[in-house]
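so my prof wants the structure for this chain in the tokens format not the other one, which i didnt know existed until like an hour ago. anyway here's the sequence
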Amino acid sequence: MFLDPVRGEYSHSADADWLTGCEHLHQAAERQGVHAAALRWVGRYSTSRGPQASRVSSERSYAEYPPDPARGYEVVGLLRLPVEQRPRLIEAYFSEPDHAEHFHGMDSAETRQAVVESDQIVGTIMAAIAALPDHDRVTLLVTTDHGMLPITTDVNIQRIVADNGIDADFRSTGTTSFVYLRDKATKPAAVAALRHYEQLEVLLPEAPPPYWHLGSGPRVGDLVVSAKPPYFIEDVAHWPWYLRWLGNRGRSSCRRRSP
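here's what i got, hopefully its the right format
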């Protein structure tokens, strides 16, 4: 989640138009004449330019996504096409085990079952590759977009900002919150106030930590608040509607350091 000075709020959009100064892998492949397939892949389409790969999945909402096994067989079907029709790059996103871990926990029975099913899908794709006449020229990469740690408590960043008189907008998800100050001159006071909370780390774009690969463009907040495990941050707007009143009246869920 972040704010763009021109486009406004970004919220998990797959639209390739959000990308600035670079391109997705399938875009680079197509630009070089390599036909690609992007199945539920971020950047598979562009609002202004249309599909960004030769084959693009049509789903636009979570409800339209096929089950992971069906997506796996879709990949197998592409692999079995004649060489002259087969995409030379196939990108496919699968929901699991991410979905199960988010909603049932890392050590749940649902997550274990999701891992088993994901392993079976990978095995099915590997078997399809092995059966190809040119199997020795096919590379399979399995990757993920993030890891996970157990979490227990949601930080009420809205209450913290209000309690400290910080005039700012913010966008949060996971363990981070981008804070966009309406008056840049208030930054030292805002940093000092937020650094009083034991559960939070305050990072500055102009002095990034060595592990940070975020950059310092206009989409990055004037400061970035990072919650330490097992805390996390999710904006009140994403809470269930019957709990959103807690954004202004509920506890912050954070302790101040002793003076």
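also thought this was worth mentioning. The helical segments are 25-31, 68-79, 98-104, 109-130, 157-163, 187-194, 246-249.
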